[in-house]
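Notes from the pairing session

We agreed to fold both candidates in a single pass and log them together. This is the raw record for the first candidate, unedited. Please don't reformat it; downstream parsing expects exactly this layout.

Candidate A
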Amino acid sequence: MTRVDSKLAGNTRGAFAMYWLGRTIAVGFCRLYLRMTVEGLEHIPAAGPFILAPIHRSIMDTPIAAVCTKRRLRYMGKDSLWKTGFGGWLLSAVGGFPVTRGTADREALVRCIEVLKGGEPLVLFPEGERKSGPIVAPLFDGAAYIASKAGVAIVPVGIGGSERVMPKGSRFIYPKKVHVVVGAPIPPHDASGGRVQREALHQVSERLHDDLQRLFDRAQIKAGVR
């Protein structure tokens, strides 16, 4: 495996300790305040890189995702957040890595692949920006492409109830129940020959979409949304 470059760094003991502290607080808050319950954790790989692909209905989905593994998860963020030395270190410590807005599609793909080839799990919201409602939005092939290029599995995650907890535009976190369902890993399209076939990626995306909808439906029911 290659080492993650300096912009993706944060692999000091202090950084990992900061992530552990932040995760402990976030998960504790979610379990107590949101009465969060989880099923399917046996599907999370015990070692090696993978893509964690949750449904996205709330800004709270980011800390909620941390319940899935005690390992540090990596997230993308706009590079302006890394302008100060300490701020950049802190964001890297809690799993973030910078991507330049405006150029971002290609740079984001490259950095995501670097993170995975560096051996760390990566969180990607396959719907893109936050959505609303019970139907999983059509997916782009970004997650399937990154998984194929890095040779890693995609682990789908349904999060039920988070839209009630903190809907888009809300400034308050409501104490509504959340339930998380982790699905079985989806293997990547084999791109060992160097070519990534569009139709094969689309098939992976379709399976991811179907699995997310099934997991989301179950999570919503368990959270008491319907």
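Candidate B (folded immediately after A)
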Amino acid sequence: MSVLIEACVDSVESAVAAVQGGAHRLELCENLSVGGTTPSAHLLEAVKQRVDVPVFVMIRARGGDFEYSRPELQQMRRDIDTAKRSGADGYVFGVLRDTQVDVERTRELVGHVDGAPVTFHRAFDLVDQHRGLELLVDAGVQRVLTSGGASTALAGAPALRELLNRAGARIVIMAGGTVRAENVAELIRRTGAREVHARCELDPLRIEGIAAALRAI
């Protein structure tokens, strides 16, 4: 069974540790204490020099909620432009409006990445997920990071399985939310997910443990 591991990292050191531990893709952020914001061009360039896996860049103007003003959305588009020049392989963002996916502004940002893959992050856990999934497919998003709306991915396993069934081949459902070595095998068994997301910056050995657990399935 092949399961892709995406590691959320916020430094060159955590990026290198994640790849050495078995990560297949990175999500690069800064300010993970507020859930992640757009990293600097300098950090992205430094990470790209040290790793040989795709690096997806968080595009988020600030911490807090996911309903952005027009100036904040303009800043996010400028951040996408900067990330393009610095070698980003993909982009991660989430835009809501009135507690639902803001399909219009999501489509605008998707159109700004010039065909690069886009992940809609865990802002998705705050919306009606069945409706939101269809809106994201319509907006051209390739991947959704979600816990199934629960506090952890394992707790949200039934909803994740349903989302995976609904998504089919139209969009990737990536399971995230307290993914650990001790629960990842059960998460895969209960959901059928083929991509998982875990934070690496607090524990450089976390990804290695998850990779080892997946190899044992």
